[in-house]
Amino acid sequence: HPKSNVTLPVMTIDEITTVINAWIDELKKLGAKYTWVAIFENKGAIMGCSNPHPHCQMWASSFLPSDPRIKDINQRKYFEKHGEPLLMHYA
């Protein structure tokens, strides 16, 4: 985005779509090599960042962190028991 202080809630639908498509492209590249890829917004010093403006970051690792690993296991168990994804009940 041309303005460095803009976050998703104030972007247009077209701008948000562009951001999400960029995330998808990067997730495909990183996901082919790494077990875990996380996307997050870093909002300046309060989050320990040296950049004062909000920006998106991606973190990739060959190690699957405990919390997502446990959630994945539980979602798989739910699917085996009920025949449908647990997350469909949240939507």
Can you tell me about this structure?
Residues 1-65 form the Galactose-1-phosphate uridyl transferase N-terminal domain. It comes from Allacma fusca. It catalyses: alpha-D-galactose 1-phosphate + UDP-alpha-D-glucose = alpha-D-glucose 1-phosphate + UDP-alpha-D-galactose. This protein has 91 residues and is α+β, with helices and mostly antiparallel strands. It has helices at 13-31, 66-82, and strands at 36-43, 54-61. The longest helix is centred in the N-terminal third of the chain and has 19 residues, at 13-31. The protein is extended and about 50 Å long.
Averaged pLDDT, please?
A: 86
Give me the CATH architecture of the domain at 8-64, please. 2-Layer Sandwich
* CATH fold-level name of the domain at 8-64: HIT family, subunit A
Low-confidence stretches: none
CATH class of the domain at 8-64: Alpha Beta
**Secondary structure: helix percent:** 25-40%
| Number of H- or I-type helical stretches | 2
Distance between the termini: 30 Å
Spell out the helices and strands N to C: HEEH
Approximate strand percentage: 15-25%
- In CATH terms, the superfamily of the domain at 8-64 is HIT-like
Strand order within the widest sheet? 1-2
Please compute the radius of gyration using only Cα atoms.
Answer: 17 Å
Q: Which structural class do the helices and strands define?
A: alpha+beta
* Largest β-sheet summary: 2 strands, antiparallel
Number of DSSP E strands: 2
- Structural shape: extended
